């Protein structure tokens, strides 16, 4: 062995120890975890942003569509239009649910989140197009009309078959546009099948067949959408409108169905409120028990508030006093219908504002069941007071004999993935400028 090799310094070894490698791996994993978390948060925010934009777009387009429809309403919002008046009609039907009762009366289980509001109101009216004409189907062709009968209503998917709208079931908003074309003639006799394939406002002829409606025909409630076979006062078939996806819109025995699942007439899915309210100019608003908040009849806590420094006027659900248990003093907050002179009141399934018609006073029918026919125009003082044909001799009265100054319609949507909730309201003034 050479001494020179023994004195030569040893070369240092290069590389990492196992401890150093493990530390590096741990730090790398921590960094990757932070990056993944950052990307997840970023993706969630992007998804929320997209959901907000999508909901905003849906609500904006729906609101604009309803505004356009309401601007074209053909009839004056004064109940009891004259017979033969070619102006059509307007109906607002207050469903059984409301913002106060939905969680106990309508939902199958209690929704403590208060996400759901009024879900079963209905709007039905005739409208005149202010721009492009309405379009629809007729015998496989596309036709147009300046006038249409328009219906806005909701349908829920009854997944558990209990006949109630439950939390988690999809609520959808639909809009049906039925063109008013009295010049059209059909040989069809099956109203249900006709309504499935055609977008024309028609009625069942008592002598047989189907007849296209005029605006004047639609002033009579018997000729309107979903009224076939109904008796006076000719309320819509609510079960078919609200609770059935079969969508046979007239006679349930007629057969045929319009497939809602294919998107026909579908406006919105994931709906949690479609709430229509009427403006009541004399309803009394209250202060909350602590005096800090103003309350309208539809607000929780109204019944416990006080009337000190009372303010008048608010948008209200029809017949809201029935749920409140107190009188709010409004003209639309009381139950609908008024007794006739012989105390035969019309019994209403739901509260409804209707422009009505005086046609019932000259149709040859005894609507009030007193044995007299059309006594309001027969020239005889049938009740022995105030002379012949006074107002108390009329056979029928509209459910609310007051002008409707305006309505408020609220849409509320929930995005299913992010559970983001958004709502908007459309307010329309019916007072002539």
Please, could you describe this protein's structure?
- This protein is an alpha+beta fold and 433 residues long.
- The longest helix is centred in the N-terminal third of the chain and has 54 residues, at 18-71.
- The termini are far apart.
- It has helices spanning 3-6, 18-71, 102-106, 191-197, 238-242, 321-324; strands spanning 90-94, 122-128, 134-138, 141-145, 147-156, 171-179, 202-204, 210-212, 266-268, 271-287, 294-295, 306-316, 351-354, 406-414, 421-429.
- It is 18% helix and 24% strand.
- The chain is built from six helices and 15 strands.
- A six-stranded antiparallel β-sheet has the order 9-6-5-2-1-13, covered by helices on one side. Strands 10, 11, 12, 14 and 15 form a five-stranded antiparallel β-sheet that branches.
Q: What can be said about the biggest beta sheet?
A: 6 strands, antiparallel
Assembly form of the protein: single chain
Range of helix content: 10-25%
- Taken as a percent bin, the fraction of beta residues is 15-25%
Distance between the termini: 119 Å
Q: What is the topology, as strand order, of the major beta sheet? A: 9-6-5-2-1-13
Low-confidence stretches: 98-109, 243-257
The shape, in one word, is globular
Record field, number of beta strands: 15
| Helix/strand order, N-terminal first | HHEHEEEEEHEEHEEEEHEEE
Query: Count of DSSP helices?
Result: 6
User: Helix/strand-derived class?
Assistant: alpha+beta
What is the mean predicted local confidence, pLDDT? 79
Structural Rg: 31 Å
